[in-house]
Amino acid sequence: MVKQTFVQVDEALLIKPLGTINVVDPSPFNWLYILFNTMEEAVRADFDGRVIPSLAASYQWVDETTLEMKLRKDAQFHNSELFSALNVKQNFDELQRWFAPHPPGTWLNFPKETTLEVVDNFTVRFHFPKRDGLALGKMRGNHFANLQFWQQLGFGYAKIGTAEGHW
Length: 167
Description:
Layout: E1 2-9, E2 15-23, H1 30-38, E3 40-41, E4 43-45, E5 51-53, E6 56-63, E7 66-71, H2 85-96, E8 115-120, E9 123-127, H3 135-139, E10 143-144, H4 147-152, H5 157-160
Antiparallel strand pairs: 1-2, 3-10, 4-5, 6-7, 7-9, 8-9
């Protein structure tokens, strides 16, 4: 919701508040517009539907259940915070807490037994409990927010202690 205050100028050229209008975006996709303008994901889909790196510089399967991602070293958030493996770990841990972290559905969830290993500042390994042919596609739905987001907003954690249903 955006609040905008309108003013009027009186004869002495003094500005006085006239009132407040609350603007609400009724679109069922407003969460998506906000998400795509504030967060980024490890991979994207190109125009042909192929999964390509985004914040990941590259990815490879180490074995049948371990996916390693090398992260871009030149990325930073809008508040100048540098992006690193610690952001991936924090976002992974936060999303794994939820029953349904993805508005399109729980099919985007990683199994609860999935773990994330931070190898170094720009390398992470996802360890899945079994083969997951959709893992890279699910990565498209796992967005990375900065530390400030999780400390101040966190989809509702800071205010109400949970984020379920608060996209």
